[in-house]
Design brief:
Blueprint lengths: L5 H14 L35 E9 L3 E11 L5 E11 L8 E5 L18 H12 L3 E5 L15 H19 L5 E6 L1 H16 L5 E7 L8 H7 L5 H12 L11 H12 L3 H6 L26 H7 L11 E6 L7 H14 L4 E6 L7 H18 L10
Parallel strand pairs: 4-5, 4-6, 6-7, 7-8, 8-9
Antiparallel strand pairs: 1-2, 2-3, 3-5
Helix pairs in contact: 1-2, 1-11, 3-4, 6-7
């Protein structure tokens, strides 16, 4: 059984409240099997000849009177432009609305090990619950596992360039299932929030054919060069071992032995092979014992702020590449994991960079998970407005 972080469990509970989709009805999804079969995740021998977004294979995993759910494997590209196979899920309504509007969703943190992938869990969790309500509205719903999560290789955790490509290429794959083309909106929460914001910047050049018209970043992981301070302050420093493993997987020039002590390197290995153990094991311990340079709150002496890691973190921080795709950011002002001021810093960054249209809204008393409930109505209205062609709210730059 997959071992999921409490965030996912809480997210599931929160979404039951948000969308009222946990009660039984004639159109409720049928039971999801624990596995789609190991063959789903095997990359084909001709992977290098495939184009990003090419659908490799699909398997039906649930059917109802109103939609069909598929687990899919599709082609994508790593940060180094290496061909990779990525898994995910696609829900297709039996009667989609005109134009076949599509929402591509990026999930929150589940871990790095393959068993942590939503497609390999006992149920799709937050992704399935969100899909249930949006597909009922006539949207095609696609949700990536991300590169290396479920499929071979280490998952490049919060490497935005990789996650963005996974989000965009599953749109292409989903279109092949439906034999249609149309506009799409990106949405992600937490880890996925940062992925969606990065995908909004990547889409116009990497995948203009996906016709992205909006992106939503919920409680997003942004301002990556400040993560060490954020996670040490929130008693969640264990996330940094996942960050290190993910960035090392994406960038071969990173030498983790110059960043972490032997104790820290052991935790990185633990992060690569489990879902949440590195996070829980580090909680309440002296984080300085894991770092070569042990001043966590000192950006000069902190090894997590050393090169080339620092440059890679900044290159994967959204807000530096202008995009015409409208953005909506929601954040709880009581977020205990990703403080709300980080998304405010993102907004300020976009204002300094220029060329953005960002609407940011905070919700009083909302936590990292409960903000899904607080923002639910605004999220659904914002998505509907994009597909209806309504003008977005201008960026409130001062």
């Amino acid at each position: 059984m997959a071992r999921f972080h409490r965030l996912v469990i809480f997210t599931t509970a929160a979404m039951c409240l948000v969308i009222s989709a946990c009660s039984q009805s004639d159109s409720a999804p049928s039971a999801v099997s624990t596995s789609a079969g190991s063959d789903l995740y095997l990359a084909p021998t001709n992977l290098g000849q495939l184009q990003p977004g090419d659908l490799i294979r699909s398997q039906i995993f649930e059917t109802t009177s109103t939609f069909t759910g598929f687990k899919v494997l599709y082609a994508s590209r790593s940060v180094s432009n290496k061909p990779v196979a990525v898994s995910g899920m696609v829900w297709v309504p039996n009667a989609p609305t005109q134009g076949n509007p599509l929402v591509s969703y990026a999930h929150g943190t589940t871990g790095i090990a393959d068993e942590c992938a939503p497609t390999k869990s006992n149920a799709p969790g937050e992704t399935g619950l969100i899909a249930n309500i949006l597909v009922e509205k006539g949207y095609i719903f696609a949700a990536t596992d991300y590169e290396g999560l479920g499929t071979p290789g280490v998952h490049p955790y919060i490497v935005g360039q990789s996650e963005a490509r996974s989000m965009l290429d599953i749109i292409r794959a989903a279109r092949q299932l439906t034999e249609s083309s149309g506009q799409s909106v990106l949405w992600g929460h937490s880890q996925g929030g940062g992925a969606a914001l990065m995908a909004a910047e990547v889409a116009p050049t990497y995948a203009p054919d996906t016709k992205v018209i909006g992106a939503i970043g919920g409680a997003p992981v942004v301002e990556l060069d400040k993560l060490a301070r954020v996670f040490s302050a929130t008693d969640s420093f264990g996330f940094m071992f996942m960050v290190a493993a993910g960035f090392k997987a994406a960038y071969s020039d990173i030498d983790l032995s110059k960043i972490f002590t032997p104790k820290g390197l052991d935790m990185v290995k633990l992060a690569e092979t489990t879902c949440t153990d590195a996070i829980t094991s580090a909680r309440g311990t002296d984080v300085s014992t894991y770092l070569v340079n042990d001043s966590v709150n000192d950006s000069v002496n902190n090894s997590l702020s050393s090169e080339p890691l620092l440059t890679h973190l900044r290159d994967n921080t959204p807000g530096n590449v202008p995009t015409k795709i409208p953005v909506f950011v929601y954040h709880g002002d009581a977020d205990e994991l990703i403080p709300a001021n980080t998304s405010l810093d993102y907004l300020k960054r976009t204002c300094t960079t220029g060329g953005y249209n960002v609407e940011r809204k905070t919700y009083a008393g909302a936590t990292h998970i409960s903000v899904l409930f607080s923002a639910s109505s605004d999220i659904q209205s914002w998505i509907a407005n994009r597909f209806s062609g309504a003008a977005p709210t201008p960026t409130p730059c001062t």
